[in-house]
Amino acid sequence: MKSVTLPDLSNLKIALVCDWLTEVGGAEKVLLAIHEMFPNAPIYTSQFRAKSAPSEFTGADVRIGWLNIFPRALRKFISPLRYFYFSHLNLNNYDLVISVCNAEAKNIKTGTAMHIAYLQGPPTQYYWGQYDEYIKNPGFGKLNFLARWGLKILVKPLRRTDFKAAQKPNYLLANSTYVADEIKKYYQRDATVLHPNVDTETIVKLVTGVSKKSCTTLRKELFNDEGFFIIAGRQTNWKRVDLAIEACIRLDANLLVAGYGAEHQKLVDLAGQNPRIKFLPCYDGTREIVPYFTIAQTFIFPSFEPFGITPVEALAAGVPVVALARGGALDFVSEGKNGLFFKEQNVDNLMTALQKVSKMKFSGRTIQSSAQKFSKSNFKRNLNNILVQKLAARHDR
After folding, report:
1. Rounded to whole angstroms, how far apart are CA atoms 254 and 228?
2. Quick one: which H or E segment has residue 264?
3. Which of the listed residues 148, 300, 385, 397 has the most CB atoms within 10 Å of its CB?
C-alpha cells in the first residue's frame, strides 16, 4: 500500500469566511473555535459589528466589503445582495478556505484552493424545507406581507442560485445528522457530520463551584424552594417558548423563562400575572445561567432546530432535557438516559412529556458525561482530522 504523507496545516495559507459577524450565536461560536485553531487566517464576511459580535474577534483580521454600509437591522432584507457579494469574492490565492455558513458564504470563488463549507443549518430553510412555515410567519412583524410577496416571487430563482452555490465547495460539513440528510435531499450532496462546539468544560467547572447553600437560597428566591422547569435562549417565534409557558400554566407548574428577543412582550402577556411563570430577561452568558440550570428539574427544548447549543449546555450542567423529536435534538438526547422526547410540537404533547419526566430519575453524572463529546477540544480535534484527511485524499488523487 502506498504511504501517504499527511499535510501540515501550519504550513498552509488559510482563509475563513462567514455570512456575517454581527451578533453572538452558535455559528459565531463555531467560527471563534476555528479562529483559535488558525489565528492568523483572515476572516472574510459581508458585515461586521465589533460591538455586537463576540469580543474575542476584536483585533482579528476581519475583512469586509461594500455590504457593511447597510445597517445590521437590514440583514434579513439583503440576502440577494449577499449572494452577489460572495459570488464575486475571489480567494483563489489560498491553499485552504473554510466557510462557516447558514446561507450565502458558500458561494465564494476559490479556484484551486480547497474549500470546505461547514453548514450550520439545512439548505437555506426559507427557500427549501421550511418554506411553507416561513410564508405563514416570516418574522418581519408589520412587514410580513412584504416578505411573503417578495419570497413568493423570488423563491424559484433563489433556489436555483442556492443549489448552484452549494455545488461550489469541494466538501460539505453538517452540524447534525438532520442537516446532513437535508443537504442530501435538496443539494444532492453528501456531507460529513461535525457537531458544533459547546463550552462544556467551563460549565462543568462552574457547576462544581456552585455551593449547596447558594442553590438553596436561589431556589427559595425563585419559587419558595419548589422545583421548576427552565427554558432559555433567544425569544423568537420559531423557538416556541409559548408552548412551554402554556404547558406549565395548564400543569400548574413552575417555569423560569431566561432570555430576551422580539417575542418577549408577547410571552410576558401570555404568562399574565401567573406567579408560577417567572422571567429572567437578560443573562450574561453561561457564567450567569449555569446556577439556574443546576437547580432546575428539566430543560425544555420545544423548537425544531438544526442542532441546539443551549440544551447541550443544560446537559453539561447535569439537567435532563425534554425536546421535540425532530432536528438536531436527535443527536444529543437519549431517552431515559439524559432526557425525553415529545413527538408533536403542541401543548398537549409537551404536557404529557413534562408529566412523565417529573416522575423519572436521572443520574446527573450520566447526563453530564453525555455532553462531553460536544466539547470545544473534541470539536477542534475532529475538525483537524477531517481537514488532514480531505487534504491528503485530494493530494493523493
Report:
1. 5
2. helix 264-271
3. 300
Going through the chain in order, the beta strands assigned E by DSSP cover 14-18, 43-44, 62-63, 96-101, 114-119, 171-174, 192-193, 229-232, 255-258, 277-280, 298-301, 321-324, 339-342
- Other CB atoms within 10 A of residue 209 CB: 10
pLDDT band of 140, cuts 50, 70, 90: low
Task: List Cα–Cα distances, 73 to 23, 105, 235, in angstroms.
Answer: 11, 19, 17
Helix or strand (DSSP H, E) at 286: helix 285-295
- 186 vs 190: CA distance, rounded Å: 11
Burial level of 44, CB count in 10 A (0-12/13-18/19+)?
A: buried
For residue 166, pLDDT beyond 50: yes
* Strands 298-301 and 192-193, bridge-based pairing: unpaired
Check whether 275 has a pLDDT greater than 50: yes
Q: Can you tell me which residue has the cell 423568537?
A: 236
Question: Which amino acid makes up residue 10?
Answer: S
Q: pLDDT band for position 2 (50/70/90)?
A: very low
| Residues 6 or more apart in contact with residue 266 via CB below 8 angstroms | 242
Please, which residues bridge with residue 18 across strands?
100
Class of domain 9-197+376-395: alpha beta
Taking the CA atoms of residue 100, residue 106, residue 97 and residue 330 in that order, the dihedral angle to the nearest 10 degrees is 40
200-373 has the same fold as 9-197+376-395 = yes
* C-alpha cell belonging to residue 89: 469574492
The second-level CATH assignment, the architecture, of 200-373 is 3-Layer(aba) Sandwich (3.40)
Which grid cell sits at 363? 443520574
Q: Helix (H, G, I), strand (E, B), or coil: what is residue 21?
A: strand
| DSSP for 133-202, written as a single string | HHHH--S-GGGHHHHHHHHHHHHHHHHHHHHHHHTSSSEEEESSHHHHHHHHHHH----EE-PPPB-HHH
Q: How far apart are CA 300 and CA 342, in angstroms?
A: 11
Domain positions in the chain are 9-197+376-395, 200-373
* CA–CA gap between residue 386 and residue 5 (Å, rounded): 15
Grid coordinates belonging to 349 = 404533547
Quick one: pLDDT at residue 1?
Answer: 39
